[in-house]
Amino acid sequence: MNYIAHIYILPLPELLDPQGKAVVNGLHNLGITAVEDVRVGKYITVKLRAQSKAEAENLADVACKKLLVNAIMEKYSITIEEL
Fold first, then answer.
1. Are the C-beta atoms of 49 and 4 separated by less than 8 Å?
2. Which of 36, 17, 20, 19 is nearest to 28 (CA)?
3. What is the pTM of this model?
4. Residue 44, pLDDT score
5. Which residues contact 19 (CB under 8 A, 6 or more apart)?
6. Which end of the chain is more exposed for a tag (fewer CB within 10 A), N or C?
7. Long-range CB contacts (< 8 A, 24+ apart) of 29-33?
8. What pLDDT score does 58 carry?
């Protein structure tokens, strides 16, 4: 079966996010002052073939741990969708 893994990667909450701070400042400069915080991350889609949804999730998790995510600075979540 074919699946698509939606991978969301964000900086760890305890780390500063300079890009997020720049976005907050920019929004405030535009008069959008209700925004209190922004975290800027990455969104990655991976199309893959697997025997089950669980296997697809495991493959995506391995990809995150081995290549896509810097575990020292980032956290991630995965959702799997059948194509």
1. no
2. 36
3. 0.87
4. 98
5. 40
6. C
7. none
8. 98
Integer Cα distance of 49 and 52 in angstroms: 9
Q: Both tokens of residue 14?
A: 């305890």
Which domains does the chain show, CATH number per domain?
2-82 (3.30.1280.10)
The single-letter DSSP state of residue 68 is I
Phi, psi of 16, rounded to the nearest 5 degrees: -65, 150
The conformation of residue 52, written as its DSSP 8-state character, comes to S
Q: Which pLDDT score is estimated for 17?
A: 95
pLDDT digits (tens, 9 = 90+) for 30-73: 999 999 999 999 999 999 999 999 999 999 999 999 999 999 99
